[in-house]
Amino acid sequence: MSGSREELDPTNPVALTSATRSSGRSSGIAQRAIASRSIAKMAEPYALTRRILDDRRLIHPEQSVRARTDAFREIRTRLLALGGDSNFITMVAPISPCSGGSFVARNLAIAFSFDEARTALLIDCNLRNPSQHVALGVEPGAGDLIDYLENPDIGVEKILRHTGIPRLRLIPNTSKREMSGEYFSSFGMRTLLDSLRDRYADRYIFLDGPAVKGSPDARILSELADFVVLVSGSGRDSPSAIRRHVADFDPNKLAGVVFNQLP
Fold this sequence. Notes:
The chain is α/β, with parallel strands linked by helices. Helices cover 34% and strands 16% of the residues. The chain has one domain (7-18, 29-235, 244-261): Rossmann fold (3-Layer(aba) Sandwich), CATH 3.40.50.300. Strands 1, 2, 3, 4, 5, 6, 7, 8 and 9 form a 9-stranded mixed sheet that branches. 41% of the residues are buried.
């Protein structure tokens, strides 16, 4: 392939482990009914056209490249099987830089938003190379994730962005930070994620994480997630390197590895 096109290998989209998850939370019929009414009110003022979605390499139900869309839907199905009845937080992180981790994270979030009974929230936690606001064509606005963590008084609503995709919201990060571990381990980050998940029983949260190689930040961020999906770029990681980095994560959280096709 030419250019900077990133592809997901549809023949082996994700090799999921037998991860299990325990949770003391129960959504309940009443809570889900309230969430469903809230979802129905989530209007998208400027829905993206099919052409824009294709140009930005964002999956959608009418996409001509059906294998790509179906691959992400398959990953969604497997995660839902692991997660049971409760919503969950999934961290997506590349093993090596430039492996397409952000591409996988946003399209996996979009796959969850296909379901009219669910919403997805994508949070750009790749502080060394933030890109989701650019990839989704979202204006930076008045604040982002780091602004909120440094000053929670601005309020969560100030950092939530429409994406042009129904039932998908973004919390962007628009400025690079070399040191991100202290943000991920902060009380403010944990409190933010808990409140975002608990407010709506049908909200699924996706953390676009930093590369695993060369920094402990992805492992620190994984402590806040229920599931971890690692991304290996084609030809970038040897089988032994993949096994070594997989072993760094809690086996009860590790959902699997996505093999991403790169130029």
